[in-house]
């Protein structure tokens, strides 16, 4: 049990790192749109998922209609639907406000997850929750300044889309854990593969409508390797690391950790994202950004400590003094 706890923590942190790579996507795709990138990424992920399913001799027994439909539904909630709402939020609310609202995800997950599972008394969650809130406020401190609002097209459209993205990801995280709990014998790799295949199928299904709306640049710029080679390379690379490995790691974390703790650990995605963004822009963090990241990390560390002490050392006097 204790070993599973450590595995879950490491898996959640790796998933947060993998998901944080999404923050650098706009800087590497050139003239192609985020929809082009998402198409390549999810199709490549689906191919990896198919390889996992066909290479696993015991996977056939899990390919029931119920499992396939559940995986496709979760893919729609957590990948296609989430992607569309996040992209729409970024288009209408700008690249600063949208990520700031997504910082609400771990807060909502922690509250809802602990309400459903009663993992910890609320008094133990209060301090890490406050640290996370303060850290997020500092990291996103420039959101509503004049500079941060420069690229806003419509707050009335962008903010509801950002909130919808928050709701979809919270829904996905809770539903995915419930689906895994209902399938204790199914390997995490097989379930991850089903979700990956579902995401690729849904993106391919969306392509005709998206192309008709002019969301994809591939028809204009070309599908050939000479024109789109870098898109394919980056898309495949992110598919392997950010999608395949990220989904696999998140499913492992979901099996081994309560939702409230997994939510706290996913906060580190913001810290990883800030570091990645600073690296892309080749600048050092400001004092406020440094303080925000440090406080976020402190909140994550405190959460891990409290959950560990509660589960494995319930009589520890340190915990009693919290």
TrEMBL record:
Entry-linked InterPro entries: EmrE-like (IPR037185)
Keyword terms of this UniProt record: Membrane, Transmembrane, Transmembrane helix
The organism of origin for this protein: Rhizobium altiplani
Listed name of the protein: EamA domain-containing protein
Domain of life assignment: Bacteria
Transmembrane spans: 7-29, 35-55, 67-84, 90-112, 124-143, 155-174, 186-209, 229-250, 257-279, 291-308
